[in-house]
Each structure stands twice: as C-alpha cells, then as structure tokens.
Amino acid sequence: MAEFSMGQALNRALRDALAADPSVVVYGEDVGPLGGVFRVTDGLTAEFGEDRVFDSPLAESGIVGTAVGMAMYGRRPVVEMQFDAFGYPAFEQVVSHVAKMRNRTRGRVGLPLVIRIPYGGGIGAVEHHGDSSEMYYAHTPGLHVVTPATPADAYSLLREAIEDPDPVVFLEPKRRYWTKAEVDLPVRTEPMDRAVVRRTGTDVTLIAYGPMVDTVLEAAEAAREEGCAAEVVDLRSLSPFDDQTVTASVRRTGRAVVVHEAATFGGYGAEVAARVTEQCFHYLEAPVLRVGGFDIPYPPPELEEYHLPSVDRILGAIDRLQWESEWTAESPAVPGRRSEVGV
Amino acid sequence: MKRTDVRPGSAPPLPPVEPIRLVDPDGRRVSDPAYTAPDHGTLLALLRAMIIGRRFDRQASALTRQGRLAVYPSSYGQEACQVGGVLALADNDWLFPTYRDSVSLVTRGVDPIEVLTLLRGDWHSGYDPERHRCAPQCTPLATNASHAVGLTYAARRKGEDTAALVLMGDGATSEGDAHEAYNFAAVWNTPVVFLIQNNHWAISVPVHKQSVAPTLAHKAIGYGMRGHHVDGNDAAAVHAVVSHALAEARAGSGPAIIEARTYRMGPHTNSDAPQRYRDDSEVEYWKERDPLARLERLLRDEGRIDDSELERIRAQADRLAATMRERLSAAGRLAPEELFSHVYASTPALLARQRQELLDELEA
To answer: pLDDT value at position B1?
Structure first.
C-alpha cells in the first residue's frame, strides 16, 4: 500500500491506459510538457511522446470536435476541459455529436472517448473556475457521467471510462485533487455504473457524489456524536443512476438527504428526490430533502464558504426530517429536536 | 535558447478575386495558368453524375410536395460542387456532408433510399458511414468540420494517406466551429479540404451580410493555409481545384479552403418562401450559368457526347427516380422499440424499463 492523492491516482490511470492501449491519446490545453494546470497529466508527454500526449490549440469546441473524428477512426481520445466553465464552448459538440453519434448512425458508429473536466468549487478560485456543470451533461442522453470521490475510484473509474465503448464525461472534483488515501494501484473498484455505500447507518441516507462525499462523511460522523446513525451513499455515476443501491438504502433508513454543490433548483438532487420518492414512498418517514448550493451564480472566492454545503447545513437538514423514531425521542444527545418538528 | 516565436512556413498567396474557371457559361474552354481541365472521361463522368444528381434532387423535391418526405433541402444549381468535389475523392478518403449535400452522397455511391432516411424521418442517418466513408449529414452548421480534422489526424497516425473533404455553405463560415476547424487543420497539418459552396443565401440572409472578406477563400490566409476561389458552376474547375488541393494536402503541404461560387436555384427547403427576400431576376441570371448546360455543350462541341448517349443517361436517371418512388412506398413499418436500441452500446436499466413501458402501452 502506498499513499496517493486523487490527482496522482488519475495520473497513474492515464499512464496505465496509455501503456495498455496504443489507441489512447491524451490532449487538451496545457496537458503536454506542463502536465496540466492541476498536474494530472504530469510526465505523460515525456513518457509517451508528442504523438500520444500533446497540447492542442486553445479551443474547447475544436478539442471535442477533433476527438469525435478520432474516435470515429479507431482512437480513444481522452481530452481535458481545463475548468468546468471552460467546457461550455464545447457544449454543442458534446450534446449534438458526442452524445448522439451512436444514435444518429443507428448504432453503426460509437464514440469511445472521455472528456475530463475538473469541476466544483472550494479552492478559492476566481469566477468561471468553480461551476458545478454536472447536470448539463447528466440531462443529456447518450453520455455516461461519472465522478469519483476517492483516489481508488479516481483510478478505477477513469480506466473503466477509457475502456468504455461510449462517451464518458469524467468530472473531477478539483477540491479533492490533493486528498490522499492508502491505495494499491492498479486497483479496480466497483463497476462504473454502481453507487456504493461508504458508511452504513440505520437512521438516514445521505446521498452525495464527487466533492461532497467527504463533506457528507464528516456530517455523518458529527451526526453519530448526536446519536444519529447516517448511511452515506456515494453515487459515483450520475448517468446512469443506480436506483437499486440508493432505494435499497432509503428503504432501510426511511429518510434521505441529497447533497451537492450545484444550484439546488433543477439540480441533480431534484432527480434523486423524485426517483427516491417514486420508488420508496411507503418507506419514507419524511420528504426527501436537498442540500445544494444557493440558486445564484457561483460566488467570488471570499464568499464561497457561505454558498457551499457545509457539515452544519447537512446536519440542519437531518434535523428537519420529521423525527419520530425512537432514537430522537430517547436520545439525550439531541435535545429539542422533536420540538422542531413542523417548525 | 530555443526561440519559440518563430513559426514555420511562408505566407501562402492570396486567392484570386476572380474565380478559377476552365469552362465558361457558354461551354467554351478557358485557359488557366495553374490548372488544366480533367480528361474527357472525367468530364463525361461529371456530366453523367450531374444529370443523375439533378434528377434525384427533382424527385426528392416532388416527394416532399407529396408529403412523402418530411423536408428536402435542394441543391438544384449546385451540382458542379456536389459532383466535382466528390469525384475528386479517392476511395479511402472521407466525405463530410451537410443536409444540403444529398446529391454528393448519391454521387459517392450511397443508396438513394438510405440517403433519404433522414429527410423521410425514419431515422437520422440511414447509411453506414464506415462503408461509404461518408460521415452522417450534419445539420448544426460547421460542427462536422473538426470531425474531419480529427479523423484524418487519426488516419495519419495509422500511416494512411486518407484525406477528407468537408462541405460547408457560405453561412457556415460565420460559425465559430468553422474557425476552430480551420485552425486545428492548419496547426496539425491534417489533409482536409474545406469546400465552401457559396450559394449566396443562408436561408434568407445574403452572403454580404455574412462576410466582407474579398472572397471566403481569403479566410484561409489568417490560418497560414492556402485558399482557392473557383467558379462553382464549372464542374471541370471544381474537380481540378479540389483534386489539386487534396493531392497537396495528402502530400503534407497542408489543408486548404476553397470557395466555390454557385447559386441556390431553389428555396432553402420546401417550406421556404424566397420571393420574400430575393428577386427573380437574380435566379434568371444564374440560370444562364447552369452547370449542366455548359458541360453538355462543351462535350457536344468536342464530339464526346451525342443525343443518344444523353438519352441513355437521362433514361438511367429516370429509372433511379422511379426506383425512389417505388422503394419509398414499399418501406416497412418502423419499430418504436428501436428508439432505445442505439443510445448506448448496451441498454441501461432505465432505458430497458422505458422500452417495456412503451411496448406495454402499444399492446394496451
């Protein structure tokens, strides 16, 4: 076992994919000799040469459009959008071509390509560097959308994404690039389309993905100190959505809170809440709650802490879940909780 | 110190404002310092493909009026570009057409019924792109241009000399994706020829509202690329210029932009109303410059074609039209469950459930 940060695990995944499959190419803005602004492609040009890992002109639509052509002709391109909001110029390519090529050609032309996008806030960056753009992609049929929360998953999901016959939007939670864990690389974790239970509990299911998984785990720990056993589900895949794992958990706990950084209105949490309600209605003790970013443009760095879901805000949501079960009634650790019901 | 501010290559020459022409509107040869007309065999092939292409186009327009096609964007008047560009391609080259380029696909050998799949509305793209080396017809303007760049880049890395011809209109040159594709092609030196069919109208907007460049081929200069300006109603010239550009691109001399000056004789589609924005006299002017008439005249004058041969080609074109009518009538039932079949390589649970819901609904 060695310690890897998420960024290092991603780097290793790219290196191993390049070594395993000569059709893999990696390109984008500054991914060559610099190694990417987050150093995720560090050392790859030196190891695999300019033919395999290279800097392209600074034009996201062109980057994704050329990747479409390469994938049509037997390459497996892995391209990088430098930051979430810099991926928007490529949006038309993603929606009209990447997502639809297999469908448009009646299954004849698939596009095995990966679009890596560092996303989310929490690193004190200025505007256009903190967006959570996942819902734009998750709402688009034809794409897989995945996002790791741990170094092991970062490695495994990226390898699987590169091997997948369909296009994958690979969202990297940039605030977790430096999060380290003991992991044996190479590693293969659960399949790409599965959610996993990161922490078991009986009282409430906390559902999160990418950058919010660690925050939710922290909240679960804090809740435990207050006597509430929270289960934590890490979605990993936003499209497809793993109904089975999520509903099984919520049916056990009867309560659910879904947490993400993105604006709450029309966000991924709305889809999760709707699906959980449809499939678990008779098991639910309380409405499914969402803890998301405010419905505002991403704030300037000095104000982002007020915007991003925090442990306290998640605990507050847990408090609002109409507690009637024995642990709230009997637990001295949560005085007054029952009195808040209905407030 | 390694200097990084010096870029390789010399500036390419400015394209001529007067288009390259090898056959004038009256069917007389025109000499050009740089280009020679294709041989008689190729000229005959061009004329034949244009006659067949125009018949296809006329039949497709008629089928649309009868309600048997959802829509048809005609390329009537642009046959020299449709045919001259495609016949310049080698078998292993790729074509990247738009929705107006159905005739180019028929010329490439794609089954006309498969070409019409998109316009009949049975599916999006009806032909096998890999078999014909033709990308699906592209509707979002200029967005397929970068695909051609990526594809030829991949082909070069495999050691192949595959080139690509991208068809685009004058309106598409205003799109940001055109710019990005031109630049990527030039920087990566991929063998792509961008053939801009300047048919003067982007639906109702005239070309002078798209660009004030002397020609659209002048755009090439800014990318360090060669630009060519050709009479787009002269099939001989289009074929010669595209062939030359493809050969140069394949040899590693870089991609090229070609503006072919032509004219959209018909409406944008069957639902357009050109009398609202353009004068009939303009259409009359271009009728005098018809691409078929001039090549037919040249070949007649030079004794290479006669009435009986023309009759034979026209009969073949009529048979194609009759086949189109018959086969469109005979088309089979669509399978609604296919809606879920080609979204991903394997059907995810969500789509499997929705497919079952639809099938249950249909059975109820």
So the answer is: 65
